[in-house]
TrEMBL record:
Gene Ontology terms, MF aspect: oxidoreductase activity
GO biological process: monocarboxylic acid metabolic process; steroid metabolic process
SUPFAM superfamilies named among the record's database cross-references: NAD(P)-binding Rossmann-fold domains
Entry keyword annotation includes Cell inner membrane: no
Family: Belongs to the short-chain dehydrogenases/reductases (SDR) family.
Highest taxon listed in the record's lineage: Bacteria
Annotated protein name in UniProt: 3-oxoacyl-[acyl-carrier protein] reductase
Keywords, sorted A to Z: Lipid metabolism, Oxidoreductase, Steroid metabolism
Length: 243
């Protein structure tokens, strides 16, 4: 049977790794990005060629409700159904809370938290219709314990965790699983501002002794999808033992 997925923030890093992993499993995809449409289109072309799957791409601001809702509706129409929704897009902000502008705070909330509502608003009715589906939200370990100088980021990811647990309870009667992955330090461009020395120092603080690779998050996604639907409302830590 046809398997389909929507992935936000898919042009690079974790989102790209998830797209590759799902395509390899035969999933037809709708991929979203903010700026890197050339990169995303190249990924789509590569996945179509290698795995013989349909791949549709969308570029726009994930904080824009109209863009997200209209694009998800288009993706749903083209794919025919959505079996898996991965909310991966997000941004970080490092600095003292008192130095953060109101605009920066609103951008953080509108980018990291609100899109979960926008995507679910479109996708959930179709999942309810067929009484199955998987919604997986990419969160952070800081959403569980908080991080100094990352208050806004921690708050939005804490919101992602609560959103996940609440929606899981709401959708459980319809056999739809909703889970989140709280990532540790992943080797992506988001950590590109760190120097080599800073990365080495940070890696020493992680019990496993290294950064997580995006492909490991993608493997976790596959595990969640293949798990029994009884596993829902879970906040799954993939942080190398950090927390």
């Amino acid at each position: 049977m046809k398997k389909t997925a929507i992935i936000t923030g898919a042009s690079r890093g974790i989102g790209k790794a998830i797209a590759v992993a799902l395509a390899a499993e035969g999933y037809h995809l709708a991929l979203f990005c903010h700026n890197n449409i050339e990169m995303l289109n190249q990924l789509a072309s590569d996945l179509k060629k290698e795995y013989k799957v349909e791949v549709y791409t969308y570029q726009g601001d994930i904080s824009d409700s109209s863009f997200v809702i209209d694009s998800c509706k288009d993706a749903l129409a083209k794919l025919g159904q959505v079996d898996v929704l991965v909310n991966n897009a997000g941004i970080a902000h490092i600095g003292l809370l008192t130095d953060m502008s109101v605009e920066q705070w609103n951008t953080m909330v509108n980018t990291n938290l609100s899109p979960l509502f926008y995507t679910a608003k479109v996708v959930v009715p179709s999942m309810v219709n067929k009484k199955s589906g998987n919604i997986i939200n990419i969160s952070s370990m800081w959403g569980t314990v908080g991080a100094s100088c990352e208050v806004a980021y921690s708050a939005t990811k804490g919101g992602v965790n609560s959103f996940t647990k609440a929606l899981a309870k709401e959708l459980a009667p319809n056999n739809i699983a909703v889970n989140a992955i709280t990532c540790g330090v992943v080797d992506t461009d988001m950590n590109g501002m760190l120097s080599a020395d800073e990365k080495a120092e940070l890696a020493e603080e992680i019990p496993i002794g290294r950064f997580c690779q995006p492909e490991e998050i993608a493997e976790t996604i596959l595990g969640i999808i293949k798990a029994p639907s009884y596993m829902t409302g879970q906040i799954i830590g993939v942080d190398g033992g950090y927390i």
